[in-house]
C-alpha cells in the first residue's frame, strides 16, 4: 500500500467492503457490468482509489483506499445508493425482482487493511511510556510550570 497525501493528512487507509443484493438474489451479467462501472465512476469522482473489485452474481467485494475524512459507513451508503439507482435506471426489469426500490441488503461487511500487524500496533502503544524521543526533559518542565486555575500543571516529576 502506498502513503497518500491530502490537504491536511498523510494517510495509508484501505478497506475491504462486501455487500449483497437483497435476499442474496443473483444479478444478471449486464447488471454486474453496470455495478462495476458505477463503482469505478463514483470512486474516481470522490477521490477514492479502487485497488481491486470483484462483482459476483450474489455479492460484491471491494478493496479501496480513501482519505481518513471518509467514514466506511458513509462510503458504503454512497456506493449502495448510487449503484442501486443506476441499476434500476439502466435495468428496469430488476424492479420486478427487487421490489420496494431496494437492490441491496441493508447489511455489509467492512474490514480495515494495513501493512502493520495488530501485534505491532499493540506493542507500539503499550511501549509509549518507555519512549524518550520527542518528550520534554524533566528539567525544562520543572523550571517553567504552566499555571491553570492557580495550580501548576506539572508540579514535580
Q: How would you sum up this structure, described in words?
A:
By secondary structure, this protein is α+β, with helices and mostly antiparallel strands. The protein has one domain: Alpha-Beta Plaits (2-Layer Sandwich), CATH 3.30.70.1290. Helix content is 36%, strand content 20%. The chain contains 5 helices and 8 strands; from the N terminus they run E-E-E-H-E-E-H-H-E-H-H-E-E. It has helices spanning 29-46, 72-90, 94-97, 118-126, 138-143; strands at residues 4-5, 10-11, 14-19, 49-55, 60-65, 109-113, 147-148, 151-152. The strands form 3 sheets. Strands 4-5-3-6 form a 4-stranded antiparallel β-sheet, with helices on one face. A two-stranded antiparallel sheet has the order 1-2. A hairpin with a 2-residue loop joins strand 7 (147-148) and strand 8. Helix 1 (29-46) packs across helix 2. It is elongated and about 65 Å long. The two termini are 42 Å apart. Mean pLDDT is 85; it is low at 147-157.
Strand order of the largest sheet: 4-5-3-6
Number of domains: 1
The share of residues in helices is: 25-40%
CATH structural class: Alpha Beta
User: What's the CATH topology label?
Assistant: Alpha-Beta Plaits
Average pLDDT score: 85
Helical element count?
A: 5
Nearest-angstrom radius of gyration?
24 Å
Oligomer: single chain
Listing every helix as H and every strand as E from the N terminus to the C terminus, the arrangement reads EEEHEEHHEHHEE
Q: How large is the share of residues in beta strands? A: 15-25%
Outline the low-pLDDT stretches: 147-157
Query: Span from first to last CA?
Result: 42 Å
* Second CATH tier, the architecture: 2-Layer Sandwich
| Total beta strand runs | 8
Structural class: alpha+beta
Shape: elongated
Q: Superfamily at the CATH H level?
A: Transposase IS200-like
**How does the major sheet shape up?**
4 strands, antiparallel
Amino acid at each position: 500500500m502506498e502513503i497518500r497525501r491530502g490537504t491536511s493528512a498523510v494517510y495509508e487507509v484501505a478497506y475491504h467492503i462486501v455487500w449483497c443484493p437483497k435476499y442474496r438474489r443473483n444479478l444478471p451479467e449486464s447488471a454486474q457490468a453496470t455495478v462495476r462501472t458505477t463503482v469505478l465512476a463514483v470512486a474516481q469522482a470522490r477521490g477514492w482509489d479502487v485497488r481491486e473489485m470483484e462483482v459476483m452474481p450474489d455479492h460484491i467485494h471491494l478493496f479501496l483506499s480513501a482519505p481518513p475524512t471518509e467514514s466506511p459507513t458513509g462510503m458504503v451508503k454512497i456506493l449502495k445508493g448510487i449503484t442501486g439507482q443506476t441499476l434500476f435506471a439502466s435495468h428496469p426489469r430488476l424492479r420486478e425482482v427487487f421490489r420496494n426500490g431496494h437492490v441491496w441488503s441493508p447489511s455489509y461487511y467492512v474490514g480495515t487493511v494495513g501493512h502493520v500487524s495488530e501485534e505491532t500496533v499493540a506493542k507500539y502503544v503499550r511501549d509509549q511510556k518507555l519512549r524518550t524521543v520527542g518528550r520534554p526533559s524533566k528539567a525544562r518542565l520543572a523550571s517553567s510550570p504552566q499555571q491553570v486555575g492557580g495550580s501548576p500543571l506539572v508540579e514535580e516529576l
